[in-house]
Amino acid sequence: MNKIRTGDLKLVQELNRSIILNVIREHGPISRSEIAKRYEISATTVASAIQELIKGGFVCEMGEGVSNGGRKPIMVKLASDRLYLIGVSISNSSIDIAQMDLEANISRKQTRPIQSLIGDELIAVILSEIEAFLLHCPSSEKCLGISITTPGLVDRDSGILYYNSKLRLEKINFKEIVESRFNIKTWVENDLNATVLAEKKFGPYGKIQNMIYVSISDGVGAGIFFHDILLRGASGGAGELGHIVVDRNGIRCECGSSGCLENYISWSAIYSRIIASTTRGRQTAIMELADHDISRVTPDIFRRAVEMDDPLALDLTDEISEFLGLGLVNLIHLFNPEILIIGGQIGSNNTRLIENVKKYVSVHALPILRDLKVCHSTLGENTNLLAAASIILEEVFHFSLAN
User: Fold this and answer.
1) pTM, 2 dp
2) Strands (E) located in 218-262
3) For the segment 202-238, what is each residue's pLDDT rounded down to a tens digit?
4) N or C: which end of the chain has fewer CB within 10 A?
5) What does pLDDT average to over the chain?
6) What pLDDT score was predicted for residue 266?
7) Measured between alpha carbons, how far is 151 from 163 in angstroms, rounded to an integer?
8) Is-cis flag, bond preceding 73, omega within 30?
9) Nearest-angstrom CA–CA distance, 122 and 179
């Protein structure tokens, strides 16, 4: 008879704890006996695992349940507020930091505009912002870790951001830098990979195995689930939708190529067109909403103008819809998703954009691939921070995305 090696036994124990923690997270309050019965795990294993989880601060007891003939069982539940995590969301325009519990509820957050910060100066500011935020957090012993999401090519295993053209960042070992500075375990992930994971974790799409999330903001990118696997690519470069070429002789891109999609549909591209149109004297509600100050025009103002049926806002939306539709049809042909979610500063709650994309797909995608749902993001204004939380919570809970 083969003996169980020590390493194998430890792995089995960790898997059992993970399974039991997930059961408590999804079905708690629940008794130890119910966990053992429902999932055919021995009572001894359940009791031992829960003891470890209580000791670690993940689970707590909460009184007696209903008796089925014997003693009333002691119920256990997730100790959501006993531990916390730090989510750091870096975009091309801001740094957002939040303290969250085990269910990604935000207790405190702060935002710092990036403005013109790039390169080493930006890294220094990020570290400074994290340091200042941690001063007002509970003991670091109660912190599960720091999760950093950022646009660009990210190797999740090493925690290295290999490349971000807009922020002038290259080969930045965020994991090593942050862990050595704060002595807290750190995860680093591409922002769109994290966002599509958050849609699976916190949205209504947990059972969807083929799903693509597309963000249109300062940049353009995609997070892709293919047969329930999050596609990252060999160098963390999967989903760089913004750099597919839609016009070989088009606008020169920061990446060094020409005619990249994001140069036609990102916020900076839209903003430039707004400036050009208003300079030529075109009247628009966009300027009225911004108190006639072009520097105060934001993506939110642009979306509000679309909702008001402002002619310029509608024209620009229709224009970017054509380019976006082209890029999305390419994704549909490559990955055949069940759901295509459109989010980001420009995409979120932009009904006209969604409808335009649906029409484009219905005409230009292969007939057999047109049967998919195109919809808005479901996560709301804190999408980026939920995305950051999902990276740590996936590690802690090993939640089954196909549940």
Assistant:
1) 0.86
2) 220-226, 229-230
3) 888 888 999 999 999 988 999 999 999 999 988 888 9
4) N
5) 88
6) 94
7) 9
8) no
9) 18
**Which amino acid appears at position 400 of this protein?**
S
DSSP string across 155-167: ETTTTEEEEETTT
Q: How many residues does the chain have?
A: 403
Over the range 365-380, which residues count as b (16 or more CB within 10 Å of their CB) and which as e? beeeeeebebeebebe
Ranges 60-74, 234-248, 326-340, 350-364: which has the least confidence: 60-74
Radius of gyration of the chain from Cα atoms? 24
In this structure, which long-range contacts are made by residues 331-334, counting pairs with CB atoms below 8 Å and at least 24 apart in sequence?
331/212, 331/214, 331/222, 331/224, 331/241, 332/361, 332/365, 332/369, 332/372, 333/365, 333/366, 333/369
Inform me whether the pLDDT recorded for 402 exceeds 50. no
Amino acid at 125: V
Check pLDDT > 70 for residue 127. yes
DSSP 252: B
State the Cα–Cα distance between residues 270 and 275, nearest whole angstrom: 9
And the tokens for 133? 């935020």
Query: Is a pLDDT exceeding 90 seen at residue 10?
Result: no
Task: Give me the mean pLDDT over the 342-366 stretch.
Answer: 94
Alpha-carbon gap, residue 85 to 145, rounded angstroms? 5
Asked if 35 and 20 touch (Cβ cutoff 8 Å), the reply is yes
Cα(232)–Cα(22) distance, integer angstroms: 25
Token couple for 343: 């989010």
- DSSP letter at 379? S
How many Cα atoms sit within 13 Å of 222 on the Cβ side?
A: 29
How many helices and strands, by DSSP H and E, does the chain display?
14, 16
With 50 as the cut, is the pLDDT of residue 399 above it?
no
- Give the C-alpha distances (Å, rounded to integers) separating 112 from 95, 230, 376: 5, 30, 26
Tell me the one-letter amino acid at 35. I
Residue 142, pLDDT above cutoff 70: yes
295, 245 contact by CB (below 8 A): no
